[in-house]
Design a protein that fits this description.
2 copies of one chain form a homodimer.
Chain A (H helix, E strand, L loop, with lengths): L31 E2 L3 E4 L2 E7 L6 H4 L6 H7 L12 E5 L3 E7 L6 E3 L14 E5 L8 E2 L5 E4 L3 E5 L5 E5 L29 E6 L3 E8 L3 H11 L13 E4 L6 H13 L6 E4 L22 H10 L3 E6 L10 H4 L19 H14 L7 E4 L22 H22 L6 E3 L11 E3 L6 H11 L5 E2 L9 H12 L4 E4 L14 H13 L1 H14 L4 E3 L36 E3 L3 E3 L8 E5 L4 E4 L5 E4 L2 E5 L7 E4 L3 E5 L13 E7 L5 E7 L13 E9 L5 E10 L5 E8 L3
Helix pairs in contact in A: 2-3, 10-11
Chain lengths: 724, 724
Amino acid sequence: MLKRFVVAFCVFIVTFTGLAQAQASTTIDGMEQLAWEEIAPGIWSAQVGEAEASTFRDLAAAKPRMEGLAKMGAAEFPFDKNDTMGQVINGTRTSVRLPLGLDEQVYGLGMQFRNMNRRGEVYHLRTDHYGGILGRTHAPTPFYVTNDGYGVLFNTTKWISFYPGVGNRKDSTLPPRKDRTTEAGWQAVPTSDAVEASANTTGMEVIVFAGPTPLDVVRRYNLYFGGGPLVPRWGLGFWHRVPTAASDESVTAEVDEFAKRDFPLDVIGLEPGWQSKAYPCSFDWSPVRFPDPKNFVSSMTDRNLKVNLWVNPYISPDSTIFEAMRPYTGSHTVWLGEVPDYTIPEARKILTDHHKKNHLDIGVSGYKIDEVDGIDNWLWPDHATFPSGTSAEDMRQTYGSRMQQTITEMFHEKNTRTYGLVRGSNGGASAYPFAIYSDYYNHKGFVTALCNASLSGVLWTPEIRSAGTDKEWVLRMQTVCFSPMAMLNAWASGLKPWSREEVDTEIREAMKWRVRFLPYLYTAFAKYHFEGTPPFRAMVLEPGYIANSNDEAGVLDGEKNPYAEAVRKDVTDQYMMGDSILVAPFFSGDRRRNVVLPQGNWYDFYTGKLVGNGEVIEIPFYLKQIPLFVKEGGIIPLLKDDANNTSAWQDGVALEVRHYGSEGGSTSLYDDDGTTFDYEKDAYSWYDLSVAKTDNGTFATSVNKSSGTYRKTFGKVEWKFMTR
Amino acid sequence: MLKRFVVAFCVFIVTFTGLAQAQASTTIDGMEQLAWEEIAPGIWSAQVGEAEASTFRDLAAAKPRMEGLAKMGAAEFPFDKNDTMGQVINGTRTSVRLPLGLDEQVYGLGMQFRNMNRRGEVYHLRTDHYGGILGRTHAPTPFYVTNDGYGVLFNTTKWISFYPGVGNRKDSTLPPRKDRTTEAGWQAVPTSDAVEASANTTGMEVIVFAGPTPLDVVRRYNLYFGGGPLVPRWGLGFWHRVPTAASDESVTAEVDEFAKRDFPLDVIGLEPGWQSKAYPCSFDWSPVRFPDPKNFVSSMTDRNLKVNLWVNPYISPDSTIFEAMRPYTGSHTVWLGEVPDYTIPEARKILTDHHKKNHLDIGVSGYKIDEVDGIDNWLWPDHATFPSGTSAEDMRQTYGSRMQQTITEMFHEKNTRTYGLVRGSNGGASAYPFAIYSDYYNHKGFVTALCNASLSGVLWTPEIRSAGTDKEWVLRMQTVCFSPMAMLNAWASGLKPWSREEVDTEIREAMKWRVRFLPYLYTAFAKYHFEGTPPFRAMVLEPGYIANSNDEAGVLDGEKNPYAEAVRKDVTDQYMMGDSILVAPFFSGDRRRNVVLPQGNWYDFYTGKLVGNGEVIEIPFYLKQIPLFVKEGGIIPLLKDDANNTSAWQDGVALEVRHYGSEGGSTSLYDDDGTTFDYEKDAYSWYDLSVAKTDNGTFATSVNKSSGTYRKTFGKVEWKFMTR
């Protein structure tokens, strides 16, 4: 699987202009060989046709983290350059063809809710809500990673169509033909030896990211776009969104109830009704429901709670900035609100001036940016025009990214970190501190999305909104508490964590674990930022995990399967959290489940017992806790004591550090002030937490600062050896 | 509803160049007013941007039937010309905006399987199989008809996106804004006053068809594209398709079983295995299964049976025409077969020379053209190239039309009519003698498709393939026997009409009615050809039918309906057949059903009893026959005697002519040789069948030739007054 392990330590610079290219050759229908240029260590670019005016590079939050990339070192170009082709057809459509091994598996292509392996399906990538149409999704990132240890980004903001392992050119080496009437093994989608992609554009850049492992590919991709977001520490506490028509009084009563009932809470989210008008939006506080917003936010701050505000981009004539914004809006309305063109600096300034004054300056911590993805019949049409001349297509593919960019820069100027939600994103967005969410609500699909998000440089929250049964309520809460953002979204249901009394205990336990995991999770986000490693990851990114699609052969059925197509059986229901933990949630209806363990010994998180080694185990259903498994030598730093708010992490906080297995090991612990961007000026520290086996068979532990200048905030470290 | 009833009898000619147009005006974002030119009576054209190289006009089977159009007379332009706008955006995307009344209902947009009224949804029209993706379907005709009595064709073969009543421009008159948090009546899709549409192209022609009634609109559209096909008489008998690996012996045994068991049969369809190789195809007879094709087809002809051959376009290297075709194939394979570019005359000639020699000359009657619609992951990709320079997009939108054109012309040269099946079609295809079919298999959806087909100039067969229960088996058989093509497609199942013994009687009765209806149905197809009236029609085309969408208000549900969207409740489960009959099939699970009766009295076909007048009636379930209702004064010519084959219509055939109701009436009966194109040289006859009330209250009947030169073929006419 990992053919090309090349380690090198030379440091590249971003302007490195690469190797001499072979003379371009041409195929029978005029495709030309691509010319590759290395633009960073293990990252190459090729341009087909004209350079596009705007790319994902312009939409990124930060410059490439060259230091992190340099540490990863150089690598060989991962496939045969002679077998890479491009073409601009009739001056209107650009296509690219790259080689693909016959058994290679293709992952990524954005926030997908079905399957992992994309091979054999066609994806027309388009920003959209999730309605089940292949390729249309909240983050249609045109980036794929293969199990052969490399990745490719098509750096275009156009609608792009992907054919991973689909479609054979007549000048390719074709697989054997079978007569469908008489021969077994006829394929509805014949095996192909290429990934092809195309879009209606006069040119396109293609960027290749080397491994050697799939995780290294993702790390290079993330680092190239600035590294993942280091979210504020409070962002890793529990979030709760109140009903849409809530008022300052009802919200205050609700948050006090959390404290009274002993449930964790860090962030309170206000839904549309915080505004004077919504759908379209005023962005101004409702004088009826929030007559004194400054006092309200301040009272939340006093409780160590952050306030997050729902918005969508569509401006009401009742907004105080409507008249100022009008010259910068597009031809069509959305919900009868005008649509700002945020490619224009003046439009961004009108918005951020308003938000700073009315929201940030009184303590608002961030936003939930809704409906930047689009459902066709409420969004602008594909022929809408915008004052900047940006096409409706480009605008739709990038609106969420531009909103994230605008909000992120606004907070950065105040040297205050934010964490929020967004419903539309795309390539290059790795560094934005936003989690994606959806109206879609299938629990298994939510977990699949969590896995796929990690392959596309975005974060995803499988938010809990409601449940049909007590059991489902607990299982969904467990999942979201072990995800990038732990949130109950009660905008429509008005539910509270304690709404189902019978399972109060299990719900409280899941939420409290969220807070106890803070040292481990915060470190995982720091690694996302500095090293590009996603804090929550698909199993295919885990070394020692053997990814098999295990497609089931199709059975001919004149009504249900007339082409006898195979049924994909990817493992999509388990994932990695941080360095060492495998999460395998249960779903409603489960009586047991399989867990696929990568190579090495794995231990039950709660008991420390060995559960298996590089095998598929079956575990019986239990409701009390979400199943967690720790790899051999895993070291897990937790808060020593239960807490309901992440402010429990303060100077002198006691840690419990768990060790699993019979071998030594080490991990890192990250620390900084948790709220500002001072870490960009080196105001952070890394600690090594190590366990070494001594000569007499006992374990020796150590905690050593390895780098950084930030003061030590944690106090006593209590080691707990779970496997004895 | 019908505001603009204008009758005029002046005869237009196709080169009429129209009226002086008002000076173009411009909207805020650069849309320009359209300039309309009348190109035929009640038909106008406007061009936005550049003229496209190929349009639906080039794909039509025949020239406009100017005689039929002249008879319809002139009409006023149906909406405000000043309110029609177009634009080419950035030189890449062309958009059009036309006015739409606030309560106007929009029908059509091709072979759709859901709903009738298209208002409020976005359709990205694209040729495809039916996978439930809005706008993707076997015949994505960009033509709509409104209940205000006009229609519009966007005469482009590009992928086009339609926004019927969706999307408000900011310079439109907007409906009242509502605050979603506090006000009732907020709309997820705000009412709009326009139809907008757009495609990636540098220009587009728009064609408007006047009414005054919706049926007149459809008639003008069909006549403009040559009128509907006058199918051969045998095409209206029963069709049976045999299992894919059938041989001459097994087919012969099977057809003899039809005769032995007294089941009707006119056409036998051979599936892929008749060929030496299939998927990809050789188009050559299998030497194993059909060693003597000439003798086989001849033996079928002796039995008065026609032979129809399944094909798809993708050529196997094993085909005898493979090497000849190679220079004319596209860049990509489909199922490893090469894809001929039939825009090239040489490619068409290679195919038709082969087919004439090997199929037509030995008596083959037609084809089933499969898989010209496409499923993305087996068709050519959107960047495939073709030797003619035709784009992959244009090729996909028109492949089915070009195949129909090629086959139709081939039969026309032999002065032999054909009737076949095709899985992809599009605008302008009215005159092609092909019924569309689908792998999709929902019975209700099949009936909805039958209705929608009539709004887009195509024919549809709700073929029966299998059924879960005896009851469903009968109900599906009844439906298909009252459709444009009565066919059992047993390619995968191997079923026969008698496969479910318990319901042999009901199945036989439905099939025998099909044959008895031959005079009525053949006349309906003649009217399709000469007058443009579809033989099977949506209720919205019936005068006196009040079409209400009756959308149900949506209920907010955080998981299932977060935008509280309305649920569409169109009537899609009944349709008109010929002049006077309303068909209201039952569906599995029905215990009763509603039937919406247009204005006037309606009578039960079987009993002659009055059932209602312009009202919704409820009928209890019965299995014996499909519910049929006849309008006041309806006259229905049938074969007098049961028959199993349409060859029963021969010189001297006895007719039974039924009359329904208490009023007189009249209808037409068409006659010709049933198989050749001699009718194009006036070798046909029309008869008036009339019933008049006499002074003493009895009925007087008459049968008079009204036009034409063909000999009278029918013999005795037995009148039957059903309502007594």
